[in-house]
From TrEMBL:
Job of this protein: Catalyzes the transfer of the diacylglyceryl group from phosphatidylglycerol to the sulfhydryl group of the N-terminal cysteine of a prolipoprotein, the first step in the formation of mature lipoproteins.
EC number(s) from the headed UniProt entry: 2.5.1.145
Record-level GO cellular component terms: plasma membrane
Coiled-coil ranges from the UniProt annotation: none
Protein name: Phosphatidylglycerol--prolipoprotein diacylglyceryl transferase
Pathway membership, UniProt: Protein modification; lipoprotein biosynthesis (diacylglyceryl transfer)
GO BP annotation list: lipoprotein biosynthetic process
Highest taxon listed in the record's lineage: Bacteria
Keywords, comma-separated and alphabetical: Cell inner membrane, Cell membrane, Lipoprotein, Membrane, Transferase, Transmembrane, Transmembrane helix
UniProt record similarity statement: Belongs to the Lgt family.
Lineage: Bacteria, Pseudomonadati, Pseudomonadota, Betaproteobacteria, Nitrosomonadales
Pfam families attached to this UniProt entry: LGT (PF01790)
Keyword Transcription regulation assigned: no
Length: 262
């Protein structure tokens, strides 16, 4: 059995200033977004999106991720704790960001950005979809470093004991999600999006891919704390939130390939 290698969540302490690994993982995700975005602009010869537009796009995206992700964590997963400790809502460096909340936040932020820049919202979402999974991968590494979102007990030889939780071998579910939602989803989307696709198809594949991988990964992940554990039909809040993503993604891909070409 493996033992979780306790990692100090603070990467660097400069007097009263603490730089957390969790924050550095988000920074790595944002920088990767810019790097891949510039490559995508050149590969598909985008004319409406420039490097300057991409920088502004990231700013809006960061706001959507942070505000939506934190509010999603508060409202979807642990409202009783955060309403009893409202100042903890601001402590994002301690972890606790809901993907589904961040996703909704990004949708709103991109709608505002597309309106201001006179861009088609769905085409914009198709552009950014392949740039998102590396950020998800870094986020899951941040979860692992923080020792949070551990897995369910297991007899598998790679089971990992998290001493700050208990002495039971558990799935290192953060690493499973790193591989599925980060590496595998990025590979699928990047290869699929290398060629021009009908409007909405890339976004649809993202919804199907993320929703499916998250649904599978949740079987190994310990149910989240708070008022929600396993819900009806024995599946988790994360799985219930992922199901509409898969169904919407399927509908989008069918629509995108059947609609007349303008």
């Amino acid at each position: 059995m493996l033992v979780y290698p306790h990692i100090n969540p603070v990467a660097l302490q400069l007097g009263p200033l603490a730089i957390h690994w969790y924050g550095l993982m988000y920074m790595a995700g944002f920088l990767t977004f810019l790097w891949l975005g510039r490559k995508r602009i050149v590969t598909l010869n985008y004319t409406q999106i420039t490097n300057k537009t991409l920088d502004d796009l990231l700013f809006y995206g960061v706001l959507g991720v942070i505000l939506g992700g934190r509010l999603g964590e508060v409202l979807f997963y642990n409202p009783s704790y955060y309403f009893a400790n409202p100042l903890k809502i601001l402590a994002v460096w301690e972890g606790g960001m809901s993907f589904h909340g961040g996703f909704l936040g990004v949708l709103v932020a991109m709608a505002v950005f597309a309106y201001q820049q006179k861009l088609r919202w769905l085409e914009l979402m198709d552009f950014i979809a392949p740039l998102v999974p590396p950020g998800l991968a870094f986020g899951r590494l941040g979860n692992f470093i923080n020792g949070e979102l551990w897995g369910r007990p297991t007899d598998a030889p790679w089971g990992m004991i998290f001493p700050h939780v208990d002495n039971l071998p558990r799935h290192p579910s953060q690493l499973y999600e790193f591989a599925l939602e980060g590496v595998l989803l990025f590979t699928l989307l990047w290869l699929y999006a290398k060629q021009p696709r009908p409007v909405g198809a890339v976004s649809g594949l993202f919804l199907i891919g993320y929703g499916s991988f998250r649904f599978l990964g949740e079987f190994a992940r310990n149910p989240d704390d708070g008022i929600f554990g396993l819900m009806s039909l024995g599946i988790s809040m994360g799985q219930w939130l992922s199901l509409p993503m898969v169904l919407t993604g399927i509908a989008m891909m069918v629509w995108s390939y059947r609609r007349p070409v303008a």
